Every structure is written in C-alpha cells, then in structure tokens.
Amino acid sequence: MRLRFTILVFIYCCVSLSSKAQYYDDPQQHQCLKCHSNQTYTFHNDLMDTEEKRLMNPYFVLDTVALKNGVHKVFDCVDCHSYEYTTYPHAANLKLEPMATCLDCHGGDESFASYQFERIQEETQKSIHHQVYGDNFTCSKCHSQHTYAATARNSSNVLEIVQYSNNMCLSCHNNMSKYNLVAGHENPQLVQIHNWLPNQELHFSHVRCIECHTEVVDSLMVSHNILPKEKALRKCVECHTADSRLKASLYKYQNLQKRSDDGTISTVISNESYVIGTHQVPFLKVLSVIIFILTLVGIIIHGIFRILKK
Ligand code: HEC
Ligand code: HEC
Ligand code: HEC
Ligand code: HEC
Ligand code: HEC
Ligand code: HEC
Ligand code: HEC
After folding, report:
1. Residues 36-74 pLDDT 10s
2. Which of 16, 36, 55 has most ligand 1 atoms within 8 Å of its beta carbon, as the pocket-test mutant?
3. Cα(204) to centroid of ligand 5, in Å?
4. How far is Cα 24 from Cα 21, in angstroms, rounded to an integer?
C-alpha cells in the first residue's frame, strides 16, 4: 500500500517536472487562446502518453472578438498573468497570485486623467455594493480587464451604449452562479422587481440600469454610485418630459451630440406623447391656427356686413 503510494508520488513529481520544462512558443497570446477561446481543449497527458480532449470551464473561455476591441488589446496574457501559465497543467499555486487592480495601473497617471479614475473609485466606495461587500466588490466585478471597451465615451449609438452597460449588470444580476458567488444566495428576479414598469423590455433596451439606480454626477462621464433600492428612480416624468433627466446622463455624451442635432435623440426625450396633456402634433397645431384665423376672418366679415346694413 505504502509502496504504491510512493510510486504514485514519484510519477507525479516526474510529470510535473517534465511539464514545467515544456514551454509554449510565442506568440503567447495565441498559445493561451488555443485553449481559452474554445469550449474544449486538448493537451498531451505525459503520464499516459496520450492526447486528451476535455471540456473547458465556460467561465474561463474568453471572447476573442471582445478581446480585440477591448482597451487592453495591446497586452499579452502574460503581461498581467504569471509567465508560469505557459505550462499546462497550470501550477496550483498560481491561483494565489495577486492581480493588479485598475487603480494600480491607472491611479495618478496623467495620460488617463480624463477618465478620473480616482473620482470613480470614490463614487464606487459610496455605492451599495461596496457598503455590503467592501473591497471584495472590486472594479473587475463589473469591468472585465480582458474585454472592457469605453463604449459610452466612444459609441454614437444609444442602443449599443445601453446594451453594453446593462450587460455589465445583467452578467451578474441575471446569472444565478455569479450572483451567488458574491452574495451567497440566489438573485432576486429582475422582471418581477420591475413589474411596475410598463414595456419593461423596451425600457431595458433604451435606458441604462444606472439611469435609475445612480445619483447623477455632472462632472463624471458615468455615475458610479449605485444607490440603495429605496432611492431608485420610479417617477415616469423624470424622463418623459422635455427637461428629461436623461439629458444629464445617457444623452450627455459628446459622441451622441451629432445624432442629437439631427433630431434622433431629441424626439425620444421630448416625445411628450407619453405625458398626458402635453401632446403636440405639428399638423394639428397648424390646423388649429388656420381654423382660428378663419373664424376671426368670418367674425370680421360678419361684423362689417352688419355695420354696412345699419
Ligand atoms: C492546454 C490548454 C491550456 C493552455 C495552453 C492554457 N491554459 Fe489556462 N487553463 C486551462 C484549463 C483547463 C484551466 C482550468 C483550470 C485547470 O485545469 O488548471 C485553466 C485555467 C486558467 C486560469 C484560471 C486559474 C484559476 O483557477 O482562476 C488562468 C488565469 C489561465 N488559465 C491563464 C492562462 C494563460 C495566461 C495562458 C497562456 C500563457 C494559459 N492559461 C494557457 C487550460 C490551458
Ligand atoms: C490587463 C490585464 C489582463 C490581461 C492582458 C489578461 N488578463 Fe486574464 N485576468 C485578469 C484579471 C484581473 C483577472 C481576474 C478577474 C477577476 O478578479 O474576476 C483575470 C482572470 C483570468 C481568467 C480566469 C477567469 C476569469 O475571467 O476570471 C482566465 C482564464 C484568464 N484571465 C485568461 C487570460 C488570457 C488567456 C489572456 C490573454 C488572452 C488574459 N487573461 C489576459 C487580467 C488580465
Ligand atoms: C496592468 C496594468 C493595467 C490594469 C490592471 C488596467 N489597465 Fe487599463 N490600461 C493600461 C494601459 C497600459 C493602457 C493603454 C493601452 C494602450 O495604449 O493601448 C490602458 C488603457 C485603458 C483605457 C483606455 C485609455 C485610452 O484612452 O485609450 C481604459 C478606459 C482603461 N484602461 C480602463 C481600465 C479599467 C476600468 C481597469 C480595471 C478593470 C484597467 N484599465 C486595468 C494598463 C492597465
Ligand atoms: C457596479 C458596476 C461597476 C463597478 C463596480 C465599477 N464600474 Fe466602472 N463603469 C460601469 C459602467 C456600467 C460603465 C459604463 C460602461 C461604458 O459604456 O463605458 C463604467 C465606466 C467606467 C469607465 C469609463 C468612463 C469614461 O469616462 O468613459 C471607467 C474608467 C471606469 N468605469 C472605471 C472604474 C473603476 C476604476 C472602478 C473601480 C474603482 C469601477 N469602474 C467600478 C460599471 C461599474
Ligand atoms: C425606470 C427605472 C429603472 C430601471 C431602468 C431599472 N431599475 Fe432596478 N429598480 C427600480 C426601482 C424603482 C426599484 C425599487 C423597486 C422596489 O423596491 O419595489 C428597483 C429595484 C432594483 C433592484 C433591487 C432588488 C431587490 O433586492 O429588491 C435591483 C437589484 C435592480 N433594480 C437592478 C436593476 C438592473 C440590473 C437594471 C438594468 C437591467 C435595472 N434595475 C433597471 C428602477 C429601475
Ligand atoms: C458581480 C455581481 C454584481 C454586479 C456586476 C452588479 N451587481 Fe448589483 N448587486 C449584487 C449583489 C450581490 C447585490 C445584493 C446586495 C445586498 O445584499 O444588499 C446587489 C444589489 C444591487 C441593488 C439593490 C441594492 C439594495 O438596496 O438592495 C441594485 C439597485 C443593484 N445591485 C444595481 C446594480 C447595477 C445598476 C449594476 C450595473 C451597473 C450592478 N448592480 C452590477 C451583485 C452585482
Ligand atoms: C430612466 C428614464 C425613464 C423612466 C424613469 C421611465 N421611462 Fe418610459 N421610456 C424611456 C425611454 C428612453 C423610452 C423609449 C423611447 C423610445 O425610443 O420610443 C421609454 C418608453 C416608454 C413607453 C413606450 C412608448 C412606445 O413608443 O411604445 C411607455 C408607454 C413608457 N415609456 C411609459 C413609462 C411609464 C408609465 C413610466 C413610469 C412608471 C416610465 N415610462 C418611466 C425612459 C424612461
């Protein structure tokens, strides 16, 4: 029994030593993605001397298109991750490796000043997530360092901005496993919680979650202070008026202004047909003026004839 155990340990050591020596060639990124962009991966089992095909943990599969569009596309995998990952099986202690946070790299860096990383961190620390989970609720809970793209800042398509932003929230709030990982219990059902909102699907594709769930801060591109649910926005008129709150949040982006000029956005916010009593249709407006003038003319003519008759 003990002999068999010793032999197994010996074999294990040999395997791990020999596999340590087996580095993948450049380019690193390509090598990593051979395994980390597919649902399955293959590797050589040195112990059995066989090629093996296994299922990849779906959470470890990276989206290669999103990687190429991300802000960190110039990085190699091993710029952020240990070079030891170039061996497979990966060494167990790599799980303990501390990873750099956004502020580690971006904090105090002049070239990224326009993003106001420090201010964002301050706001994030006031948010409900931070109040409940403290520093465990890292920036990476919402922002993947692999794929993040500054969409609100760069896109000129409202729907794209909304979808990108909302997916960051939904990737957790609509994913039982991810939510459970943070909270330790199941996620409340968003559809039921927002039952009071008509056309829920339409709203969720036209406004961001953060429009209703953050305090709007003018000086920041994207408000990061997620308020407790009691403070969430419920009043329809906050958005459905000409002086919509969306002007200070979703529709404030310079990159959208061009569209705003050609009227696409202003029709959305000043579409007052949703607010009773402010309904205005240009054709009817002109018609009513014409009727008014015709009536006036009628009265005047009528008056003139009456005076002439006298
Ligand atoms: C032969 C396939 C293969 C290659 C090549 C590969 N990996 Fe992995 N990697 C895996 C598998 C499978 C896992 C799941 C955990 C395990 O089996 O060790 C994993 C897990 C990981 C993890 C998550 C560890 C954790 O537990 O949180 C990271 C990070 C990682 N790999 C980075 C890399 C990097 C960086 C490279 C390239 C330098 C790379 N991998 C190359 C197969 C591979
Ligand atoms: C800009 C830094 C950065 C680069 C570049 C990077 N990673 Fe990561 N990676 C991270 C961070 C940070 C985490 C931990 C995320 C977290 O805390 O949830 C991580 C986690 C992972 C994981 C674990 C699963 C997950 O998403 O949490 C895998 C697998 C992985 N990276 C593979 C890769 C591969 C393959 C590449 C190259 C294509 C790569 N990474 C490039 C920063 C980076
Ligand atoms: C390992 C260091 C590192 C980490 C960690 C890191 N970044 Fe970066 N980031 C960089 C570098 C370097 C660039 C510039 C890349 C280039 O020149 O293309 C960059 C670019 C960016 C840009 C685009 C800047 C521009 O104007 O082009 C944004 C936005 C950004 N990062 C956000 C983040 C966020 C959010 C996080 C955390 C989730 C993060 N970064 C984590 C190093 C890092
Ligand atoms: C609760 C989720 C969440 C957390 C946590 C979070 N962010 Fe964000 N962040 C967002 C969303 C949503 C956006 C808008 C995405 C977009 O369209 O660019 C954003 C945008 C950004 C931007 C781009 C703003 C711009 O000016 O273009 C930066 C930079 C950023 N976040 C940094 C951080 C940093 C640093 C942290 C941690 C201190 C953090 N975020 C934590 C959700 C989050
Ligand atoms: C039109 C405004 C509005 C939009 C858009 C909106 N919410 Fe809400 N949300 C609310 C209000 C108001 C409440 C409070 C409901 C209550 O307490 O009955 C709420 C409650 C919540 C809660 C609290 C759940 C609980 O524990 O009871 C979560 C989580 C939440 N919303 C997430 C989201 C996410 C994620 C999105 C984006 C997909 C989103 N919301 C979009 C207004 C909105
Ligand atoms: C990684 C997971 C994760 C992500 C990403 C995430 N959340 Fe949450 N969120 C949680 C958890 C867990 C809670 C429950 C906190 C608690 O127990 O009170 C929560 C709570 C909330 C609440 C309810 C607060 C209350 O008073 O109960 C709102 C609103 C909310 N999140 C909005 C958002 C928005 C908006 C985004 C995207 C910008 C987002 N969340 C992204 C995990 C997440
Ligand atoms: C955060 C801002 C916001 C809030 C709060 C909000 N809405 Fe909306 N609503 C929108 C936007 C944006 C649209 C999409 C407009 C468009 O493109 O047609 C929309 C669309 C609608 C539509 C659909 C109109 C159509 O064309 O089919 C109705 C009805 C509506 N909202 C009613 C309400 C009611 C009732 C409330 C309050 C319970 C409410 N909304 C709260 C922003 C908001």
Report:
1. 999 999 999 999 999 999 999 999 999 999 999 999 999
2. 36
3. 11
4. 10
